[in-house]
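pasting for ref
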Amino acid sequence: MVNIIEITEFEAPELDIYARKTEAQLLNRDKPEEGIFIAESPKVIERALDAGYVPISALVEKKQIAGEAKCIIERLSEEQLNEILIYTAESEVLTQLTGFQLTRGMLCAMHRRDLPKVEDICKNARRIAILENVMNPTNVGAIFRSAAAMNIDAILLTSGCSNPLYRRAIRVSMGTTFQIPWTFVNNSCSWPEEGIDILHKMGFKTAALALSDNSVRIDDEKLMQEEKLAIILGTEGDGLATETIADCDYTVKIPMTHGVDSLNVAAASAVAFWQLAGAI
């Protein structure tokens, strides 16, 4: 049986999780086992369900109960329907919630999961990406979307990165944050010293995207023929740390024209993934 509760006022406490909780509050660093995230739109919610994430509650525009949200509600098990609450409201109430009009009528709060170890998600991988302190959730989401499209097997993030389950990152990624295995490298070891050492022991060659006198072109024949390759991308503005570049097997550049010396990290990732993984 579907537990549908109608909300008539934007200030209703039932909307706190969707309208007033910050990303830090949702993440719940003090009690990570209680952390949650918000998935937006039926398509993204469906990808989260496909990946095994467990719903807590949903917020649906009233007319979408029998519309675009219907397929999501119908796929929930009887047990899930007994445990979760589905809140609904008219569009006049929900449009006060920033961005709701972009969600195609549905939001879903879901439990986070324990993160896997680096070794577990990389053991069968050939091409992985590592994000070093990429702080903008829009860039993180865009990188995940490119990774899913271009045959990247897993993504590692350093502790300075925006969380891939932040609401904006999920939305920009179109839910591919649920499809690409990922974890924070600092959960298993320090970065870059221990992290790169672990990758080397697993058979990966490491490629830092950075400009230097020793950079090779991204279409370098030897680079492209590496059996296992870790593509490392740096933070917005400053790029990769000097020690990270020094520890890598390759320093790689994307040839450019008109005096342009760098791309946004999300754009650079798409080029790198296509060249080094998409063509495999």
